[in-house]
Amino acid sequence: MKIKFIIIASLTLLLTGCANEYNRVLKSTDLDYRYEYAKQCFAEGQFNHAEMLLQDLITSKKGTEEAEESLYMLAMSEFMNGDYESAAATFRKYFQSYPRGVYAERAMFYVGQALYQSAPEPRLDQTPTIGAINAYQQFLDFFPSSELYSTAQDRLFELQDKLVMKELLSAQLYYNLGGYFGNVSASTESNYASCIIVAQNALKNYPYMKWREEFTALIMKSKFELAENSTEDKRLERYRDAEDECYGFINEFPDSKEIATAERLIAKCKKVVKD
User: Fold this and answer.
1) Which of 126, 98, 131, 97 is nearest to 113 (CA)?
2) Model confidence, pTM
3) Helix %, strand %, coil % for the chain, to 5?
4) Which of 48, 96, 243, 269 matches a 20 to 30 Å C-alpha distance to 112?
């Protein structure tokens, strides 16, 4: 019990001493002293303290030998503190200021990393995801021989999958809304037509995606439903289109669990076309 008390007391004194020194540094006008202490905090993983000190120092150190390192340490401190938006902006500022700098490669990589960390789940707005993809692509273009190349490439593909998933969720939503007209605009005939457009655009924009079968199945079923709900002048043509889509699906995905659905829809289409 006595030993435990001594350890706690020692830690309290140590922490108090560190806090007192940090406060002294904050009040100091000695830039070199503040800079060296900021470096020490950064090295020891005290990123909150490092960030607070470096935010002031990057202006004061501008034009000096320490300016480049200060800017990079600030960006990394922001990243480690979870302020990914600020980190991305600061890493980008570093690369723009020092394109041939010591940390240029890592700074460009961490622009993508910071935006990657803030990328939301697929149902939400994907602006940060698009920003991360662009940043990783820029890194791959600038540093094709980097040791971080494969990591950046893998993250880029992962983020692209997130964009594809958002499109898949959107297409599924349109299909599930079906004949509901409350959300249908004047330029779109129905939710089934919207589903077809979203799915076809996704297949065109992401030809090597892993959800090709799911998108194609949605197009097939939506074309049939569109035919079912068509006016008389468009009905026959749309049933033929739906039938062709079903045959195309069977040829492309012969082992799909949707084969039975495709065959059932073909039978219905043939009955209408023959009549």
Assistant:
1) 131
2) 0.80
3) 75, 0, 25
4) 48
**DSSP letter at 62?**
T
d(CA 108, CA 103): 9
CA distances from 83 to 71, 80, 125, 165, 260 (A): 15, 8, 19, 26, 51
DSSP 22: H
Burial class (CB in 10 A: 0-12, 13-18, 19+), 236: middle
Q: Look at the alpha carbons of 230, 232, 237, 243 in this order and tell me if their dihedral is positive or negative.
A: positive
Pairwise CA distance, residues 124 & 21, whole Å: 44
* Chain CA centroid to CA 194, Å: 25
Find the helix packing angle between 47-60 and 2-27, rounded to 10°.
10
- Contact yes or no for 129/118 (Cβ under 8 A): no
Q: What is the mean pLDDT of residues 84-97?
A: 97
Angle (CA) 39-53-80 rounded to 5° is 70
What letters, b where the CB count within 10 A reaches 16 and e where it falls short, cover 170-180?
Answer: bbbebbebeee
The answer to whether 176 and 198 are in contact (CB under 8 A) is: no
Q: pLDDT tens-digit profile of 175-189? A: 999 877 655 555 567
